[in-house]
Amino acid sequence: xxxxxxxxxxxxxxxxxxxxxxxxxxxxxxxxxxxxxxxxxxxxxxxxxxxxxxxxxxxxxxxxxxxxxxxxxxxxxxxxxxxxxxxxxxxxxxxxxxxxxxxxxxxxxxxxxxxxxxxxxxxxxxxxxxxxxxxxxxxxxxxxxxxxxxxxxxxxxxxxxxxxxxxxxxxxxxxxxxxxxxxxxxxxxxxxxxxxxxxxxxxxxxxxxxxxxxxxxxxxxxxxxxxxxxxxxxxxxxxxxxxxxxxxxxxxxxxxxxxxxxxxxxxxxxxxxxxxxxxxxxxxxxxxxxxxxxxxxxxxxxxxxxxxxxxxxxxxxxxxxxxxxxxxxxxxxxxxxxxxxxxxxxxxxxxxxxxxxxxxxxxxxxxxxxxxxxxxxxxxxxxxxxxxxxxxxxxxxxxxxxxxxxxxxxxxxxxxxxxxxxxxxxxxxxxxxxxxxxxxxxxxxxxxxxxxxxxxxxxxxxxxxxxxxxxxxxxxxxxxxxxxxxxxxxxxxxxxxxxxxxxxxxxxxxxxxxxxxxxxxxxxxxxxxxx
Length: 531
Fold this sequence. Notes:
four-stranded antiparallel sheet; Helicase, Ruva Protein, domain 3; 531 residues; Herpes Virus-1
């Protein structure tokens, strides 16, 4: 496949993904070929990279545009037509039935052609032999009754598929159009006489009988999408608005990170955003937790108590212990002991204390309720800690992506003019932002990793927090440097200062890349160094 038509990913050595080989003076080789920091942010001009699984294995994959998919479809149809000596329409029917697997078709066909024909609906002989009625007069032709609408038409107004069951063109058009508007099931449409007749309705009938261009376009779209959606080695890029597909050369048992030409990077296995170093199951749990009501329940348990009378949860938002439930209940009670307020007064501690609660607590009367409330509070605080930092890094990553686009569209050209350097010599700044974007993603998912790391495993947790803290430090250093230090060079010339900036930034890129590479490997290996 030509690199101009699709984005081809070649497998390479495992070590190169985190190798410490960045050379800021090499114009032709940027960080794109060097690992994690650029997966998902490649340009269309780049034609080679690698897809790495969470277990370190590598496979080839191709990003396909619409014209590539159509060419693949045409090639597959041509192969089936040539080998089996059947028409293109029949080959299309076979490929749709066998999910575009040419090898499966060949195996099944040559094992039992008759069975395949019957199953798919490609009939060699018509079920019904139609005889054109003889005209009753010199110029009159006998009319035929349609088996669907029971109106009479001339024989030329009828159509049929291989089975020979004839129906009027109007009924055929309505039948096919309804099927198209019901969804992609129209691709496997059978004769209207089905289930007694299994004959397939091919694309030729759609082209011949459907006059509505919108319906034709829908059918064509279903046909195109079937090549990806029915193919176990292909998936659509899940980015909103993206119509590119990814074709891999192996099964999807591992969790592979895929980089689309639209700049979206996703996990091949679960199609969520790329999430190394955590596995797909952890991502699924984390997403469910973020969208579930469980944390609302924890908040209620931690910050409210049930009214002793109506049992509705009530939040205490003032210092006074005197609580009044909302209408229509209006029950008045003590926040601490939950006893009726009429039994309270100065002798029981007043509005800001409760002697009854203190005495009951000494006797252990409130231990279970307090324990549950404290557990809910701790759980909520722990979740909030991890979620806020997960979300913070996600937003920082989005902002970095915007800054990168701004750099490419405006600032890089301006910097080139001021510093007298060609834009190809300034690629190291783009590389820095690409590194930041990818490292933000990794750091984001370390918080989901940390949330599910057992609190009882103190050694691993301590080691994890140390690694995470160092990663944050390296990333902040790189981010601040490229964001703040570069600004001065957009307004004034300074070749010596700019060369120092270039050298220092290259060092920070290399250091950050190496550290994050080691971090990802350590977490994917389950922090085995602690064991």
